[in-house]
Amino acid sequence: MSTRNIKHQLFEQFARVGKALGSPIRLDLLECLGQGQRSVEALAEKCGLPVANASHHLQQLRQAGLVKAYKEGLYVYYRLAGDEVVSLLNAMRRVAEQNIAEVDWLINTYLTVKDTLEPVPAEELLDRVRKGMVTVLDVRPPDEYAAGHIAGAVNVPLAELEKYLDKLKPKKEVVAYCRGPHCVLSYDAVGKLRGRGIKARRLKEGFPEWKAAGLPVEA
C-alpha cells in the first residue's frame, strides 16, 4: 500500500471526529460530560432531549472516540474519553471566535454586554486562592459540583445566590465560574454580585478547562 493511500485512510478516520463534532446537540452533550460522567437519562434531561435521541447522539460520539461508556445495572453511563477532548473543543471554539463573524456578534451582543471586565486567568486565580485573597463560587447545579469542582470553591447555584450574599466578606473579591467560557451562569452571577456592591469577576474558562490543565480539584 502506498504512503499516499495510508494518509488518505488516516484522514478518513480523522474526519470521523470532525463529523461527530458537527452537531450543536452533540457539542451540548460534550459540555455536560465535561462536568462529570452522567447516565443517558440524566444527559437527556440536562440537554432537553428525548432519551432515545440522546442515546443516538452519544453512540455517534462514542464511535468517534470522543466519549466512553459503561453499564451499571440497568443504566448506561458516559464520560469524556480524556482531557484531550476538552482541548479539542477549546481549539474549535478559539478558531470560531477568531474567524467567524457570527460568533463575534453573538458574544458581543449577548455576553460581553453582561460583563466588560477582563476575566481572571486560571493561574492567577490559583495564586490568589493560595494567598486567601478571593472567594471562589461555583454557580453550577449541585450535582455537577458534587461530580468535581475547583478545590476550595463554594457551591452557590445562581438561583440561591441572593440568599448567600450576606455571608460574603465585602472587602474580599469573588470569582465565579461555571461550565465553560461562554456559560451564562457566571456572567449573571457576577452581574448580581456587582449590583450589590461586591467586587466580582469571572474565571476566564470553566471547570473542564481547569481540570484538564491539571489544577487542583475536589469531588
Helix-strand blueprint:
Elements: H1 3-21, H2 24-33, E1 38-39, H3 40-47, H4 51-63, E2 67-72, E3 75-80, H5 83-99, H6 101-110, H7 122-130, E4 134-138, H8 142-147, E5 149-150, E6 154-155, H9 161-164, E7 173-177, H10 184-195, E8 200-202, H11 207-212, E9 217-218
Parallel strand pairs: 4-6, 4-7, 7-8
Antiparallel strand pairs: 1-3, 2-3, 5-9
Order of helices and strands: HHEHHEEHHHEHEEHEHEHE
Report helical residue fraction.
40-55%
Largest sheet: 4 strands, parallel
Total strands: the figure is: 9
Total discrete domains: 2
Judging by the overall fold, what is the CATH architecture of the largest domain?
3-Layer(aba) Sandwich
- The average pLDDT score comes to 94
Give me the CATH superfamily of the largest domain.
Rhodanese-like domain
Q: What structural class is derived from the secondary structure elements? A: alpha/beta
Return the CATH topology of the largest domain. Oxidized Rhodanese, domain 1
**Number of helical regions:** 11
Q: Assess the beta-strand content as a share of residues.
A: 15-25%
